[in-house]
Specification:
single chain, 24% strand, Rossmann fold, eight-stranded mixed beta sheet, binds cytidine-5'-triphosphate, alpha/beta, elongated
């Protein structure tokens, strides 16, 4: 299941930074639903928040008018975390004193979901004993905090009270959502995306891979604390947070980048590597010139998964491959796993109509030893999370 937070945006000048925060959270595959206090609507518009979060936005006034406050309370209870950002001095005071005079404070009072607070206020307000006492109260009740930072503030004063940078808040949210980092200290190598095998300077041989599955796996392993190197063929996807991406174009480059990234504890080959490359790439664009179409001589590309699976001191202790098949999925996958020498294999049916290439859903058979386990159809991000959890379980008993 995807992690989901409720972001309560308070009414301060720093509210604009919450827009960037929403963008960063979605990049980390965290679902965000927002509540704006009435004063927050003077700083950011519900429309921008809705556009960025891709979810309905709740404001105190609208919610009361719609008489749907009860639904929102249910919403806050089903979230994994409530985040208050920016938390103004006023909002902190109302939280500390148990007010429930608008939707935001009602939600905060009516739930026992963990709360993370990102304060932002004028330095004197921050230092005031009333605020410090309110913060102490909230801390003793288990509220988590990120920031504030020290620096120049919108009001021109200098000192503590500035909202933390959105990156830092996003990381604090991730830490709160995923406090256990079972893969910390592990290096995971992931290949993803297609390869482009050039014919000449303007043409290439490629395939339909979008890279989504491999990128989701890289993100899921990073969320569990792994140091992740993502060797990626050409895709239009953003690099997941906390992941080191190495961009490559061809299969030969992908193999070289993987070898350079070793040693690693685990390698996951999710890339759709081109099986063949053109023997001699033309230095200039091939012209038609009225003659017969050119004949392309193809040579086989190196097999990255098979290379990484070869016994040796640099072999990752867990090597995982994918099998993309269009028929007799299980039989082909079993044979492929044996041929490549990897430890686990995830087999998926990529035949026309399954929409696996480019789509967000996938259905896999999971092969470990002689066991074949069918996983139900799910989002690629959920497959990634399940796989990362399995990897963590596998490593839990072996020393780092
Ligand atoms: N793979 C690889 N290097 C290659 C070809 C494939 O690392 N040159 C990896 C893929 O990343 C995947 C696995 O091998 O993890 C299986 O890829 P797949 O395309 O299903 O199989 P192929 O090896 O290409 O075999 P075939 O074309 O016969 O199905």
């Amino acid at each position: 299941m995807r992690a989901r937070i409720i972001l309560i945006i308070g009414g301060g000048i720093a509210a604009y930074k919450s827009l960037e925060l929403i963008r960063l959270l979605r990049k980390r595959d965290i679902a965000v639903e927002c509540v704006l206090t009435e004063s927050a609507t003077h700083f950011v518009t519900p429309l921008s928040v809705q556009g960025l979060s891709g979810a309905p936005v709740h404001t105190a006034l609208l919610s009361l008018a719609e008489d749907s406050q009860m639904d929102h309370i249910a919403l806050s209870r089903s979230a994994d975390l409530l985040v208050v950002c920016p938390a103004t001095a006023n909002l902190v005071a109302r939280m500390a004193n148990g007010f429930a005079d608008d939707l935001a404070t009602t939600l905060l009072l009516a739930t026992d979901t963990p709360v993370l607070v990102a304060p932002a206020m004028n330095v004197r307000m921050w230092q005031h004993p009333a605020t410090q006492e309110n913060l102490r109260l909230l801390r003793t009740r288990g509220c988590l905090f990120v920031g504030p930072d020290e620096g120049e503030m919108a009001c021109g004063e200098f000192g503590p009270g500035r909202l933390s940078e959105p990156e830092a808040i996003a990381s604090a949210i991730e830490d709160a959502l995923f406090p256990h980092k079972p893969l910390s200290g592990r290096h995971v190598l992931v290949t993803a995306g297609p390869t482009h095998e050039p014919i000449d300077p303007v043409r290439f041989i490629a395939n339909h891979s979008s890279g989504k599955q491999g990128y989701a796996i890289a993100a899921a392993c990073a969320q569990l604390g792994a140091q992740v190197t993502l060797v990626s063929g050409p895709t239009s996807l953003p690099c997941p947070a906390g992941v080191t991406r190495v961009d490559v174009t061809t299969a030969v480059e992908m193999l070289a980048a993987c070898k350079a990234a070793l040693p690693s504890d685990c390698a996951i080959c999710a890339a759709a590597v081109g099986d063949w490359r053109v023997a001699e790439t033309a230095a200039q664009k091939r012209k038609k010139e009225g003659g017969a179409p050119p004949e392309l001589t193809l040579v086989e590309n190196p097999d990255i998964l098979a290379t990484l699976s070869q016994p040796g001191t640099l072999r990752p202790s867990l090597v995982i491959g994918f099998a993309a098949e269009t028929e007799t999925l299980e039989a082909h996958a079993v044979a492929k796993k044996r041929r490549k020498g990897c430890d686990w294999m995830l087999a998926n049916d990529v035949s026309t109509g399954t929409n696996v290439f480019g789509g967000d859903q996938n259905r896999v058979l999971f092969l470990d030893g002689d066991t074949v386990e069918p996983w139900s159809a799910m989002a690629k991000t959920d497959i990634a999370r399940s796989l990362a959890a399995r990897i963590a379980a596998r490593f839990s008993s072996s020393p780092r």
